[in-house]
Amino acid sequence: MRVSVLGTGMAGQVLSAKIAELGHDVMVGTRDVQTLLARTEQRSANTQPFSEWMWEHPGVRIGTFAEAAARGEIVFNATAGLATLEALEAAEPQNLAGKILIDLSNPLDHSAGFPPTLSVCNTESLGEQIQRAHPQARVVKTLNTVNAYVMVDPKGLGDGDHHVFVSGDDPAAREEVTLMLQEWFGWEHVIDLGDISTARGPEMYVALWLRLFGALGDPMVNVKVVSGQR
Amino acid sequence: MRVSVLGTGMAGQVLSAKIAELGHDVMVGTRDVQTLLARTEQRSANTQPFSEWMWEHPGVRIGTFAEAAARGEIVFNATAGLATLEALEAAEPQNLAGKILIDLSNPLDHSAGFPPTLSVCNTESLGEQIQRAHPQARVVKTLNTVNAYVMVDPKGLGDGDHHVFVSGDDPAAREEVTLMLQEWFGWEHVIDLGDISTARGPEMYVALWLRLFGALGDPMVNVKVVSGQR
Lengths: 230, 230
Known about the structure:
The structure is a homodimer of 230-residue chains. Chain A has 230 residues and is α/β, with parallel strands linked by helices. Chain A has helices at 10-21, 33-38, 50-56, 65-71, 81-91, 93-96, 126-133, 148-152, 171-185, 200-216; strands spanning 2-6, 25-30, 61-64, 74-77, 100-103, 108-109, 117-118, 138-141, 164-167, 190-194, 221-227.
């Protein structure tokens, strides 16, 4: 399958590497390819400069947001939350129309230090904003509740006995994404929360995730939902 | 121990009954005792009129917010989040001074239907507002992430293999409350998140809890934290 991953940070790198490893044809999208490849400094402690990363992942293509979005049969949004709406605008609505757009971003505002706050929440979510800006895309919010390494390898944490969520207005898209999470990454426990407004739940949960990260000192952390039914 | 429980709704009833059953001397606090006892209608499907409930729990005393707060060596806030600051004002700061004040409320605004939104979040929490309004109280936020029945009987859900959190500025108070959660209710998994600002995490998590309740149709739901460390 032709897969696009928008965003070249840690999530974009880890996700692209995994999807390419599965044998899919991956193109990573970025604002400006030359600027990206010219950059030699690390963006964060766990993230390689993209030019180095590309060297180690020769099968992965690189293009503009629009080129990547146009090429993919399915599109992952792995851009930073505060830059997401602009990045998707640059990807151009017609390139996303009719496609599943998997949004794993969080609207984190780091301007006041750690822990970051959310730039939207409570009566709104980034997932909803994306769906409104791209009414023809089939937006599914998922995976935003875990670290990139857990996203693509849930079994690497607690034998995979923990949950991830899907939210989106298109029930068939939620189902397809649920299957993809299972088959591509090994997610055995996916809870369908419902329409895209339910993305407020997993996005706001990130405020707890950040405090768990702070208290436990471990970014490999997720939750298992325990109820009378499962 | 003399224990006060402020609030006469489901959480106040369930908590008071359990604490009294443990042999403690419980007083429930309310705004106006006569009004409360005169009320004969149910406040919600799972909540008895308090006058009926009292009949079945003859050991539990009833008083005003101030009488209850003055009497207790430890105080639970089980009032509705939107009414909490007013209730604690009525309880009078000097009656709370030096005491552990366990806050299990959520700032839920039900005015626009289900799911409710939060009246404060992101850059603020109800826990912090309470601590600021009552600087002499030793506020510990906990138990707000679960249904009242799970609060007092965690083992009744998934054999107790799930977590609860404590947040508060006083480390000794967090420790005392952690022990109390274990000894009184049987909580085996308590995570100390840190100062009272960390209450934003568990309070915002409630947005996810509400969607899980919506999706699973089960109010007996909690999360187990899964990390490399536990």
